[in-house]
Amino acid sequence: MVSSTTVVALATFAIFSALASPILETRQDRPTKPEDCKEPDRYFFDQTAGQYCINLAKDVQYGETCPDVVGHFNNFTATQLYKWNPYIKRNCTGLLGRVPVVINAPGYIYEGQPQTGDKKDASYVPAPIDNGVIASCKTFQYMGWGLDEAAQADLLLTKNGISREQFLSWNRGFGNGNGALALGTYWSCVAA
């Protein structure tokens, strides 16, 4: 007579043995270089957890910006878009028409879009930022659309205890006669 403990142990072993085989095969088949992704519409993606061939990509249209691409899907942030596609640069000037970008990756969990006023330290590496943001910035604050200049000034200057001169010295691309302290949907430096 076979005990119920033995039956459960054998069943558990059989299930894990069946599951382990495909996982090992997948790991052995992982690409190590872009040339390994030979199928059409498959793109090489390298992350700390490993390399993958993925087909989760979008062809960028001429004139599209990072906020356009993000808004089209609304399931990742511009910061994440930059982390998946570092060639687009933190200011998103490397985003080119008819060049595909990765728009998802294994293990990514969407946590929502940043909100106006959100702050992050420099280790977060937020994107997009303006061309003129200084490299020694320690804290970034997100500016969304819909705020007039007075509201931007209150949010950026008063709440951060900084002067307009400090802000403009840390964000050299702003204040070029555009009438606003910050461009919508950008991360601005608020501490250096």
Structure description:
The chain has 192 residues and is of the alpha+beta class. It folds into two domains: 34-102, no CATH class; 119-191, no CATH class. It has helices spanning 4-28, 66-73, 78-84, 149-158, 164-170; strands at residues 43-47, 50-54, 57-59, 100-102, 119-121, 139-143, 186-191. The protein has a three-stranded antiparallel sheet with strand order 5-6-7. Strands 1-2 form a two-stranded antiparallel sheet. It has a two-stranded antiparallel ribbon with strand order 3-4. β1 (43-47) and β2 (50-54) form a beta hairpin. The longest helix has 25 residues, at 4-28. The protein is elongated, with a radius of gyration of 23 Å. Residues 2-28 have low confidence and may be disordered.
Kindly list the characteristics that best describe this protein:
single chain; 192 residues; alpha+beta; 2 domains; three-stranded antiparallel beta sheet; two-stranded antiparallel sheet; 5 helices; 7 strands; 30% helix; disordered N terminus; LysM1-like; chitin binding; signal; LysM domain-containing protein
Please trace the helix and strand order, writing H or E for each element.
Answer: HEEEHHEEEHHE
Number of strands: 7
Shape: elongated
Structural class: alpha+beta
The overall pLDDT, averaged over residues, is 73
Strand fraction equals 15-25%
Write down the oligomeric state. Answer: single chain
The largest pleated sheet is described as: 3 strands, antiparallel
Count of discrete domains: 2
- The number of distinct helices, counting runs of at least 4 residues, comes to 5
> Low-confidence parts, pLDDT < 50 over ≥5 residues?
2-28
Computed over alpha carbons, the radius of gyration is 23 Å
In helices, the fraction of residues equals: 25-40%
What distance lies between the first and last C-alpha atoms, to the nearest angstrom?
74 Å
Read across the widest sheet, the strand sequence of neighbours is: 5-6-7
Keywords: Signal
Signal peptide: 1-20
Organism: Tothia fuscella
Protein name: LysM domain-containing protein
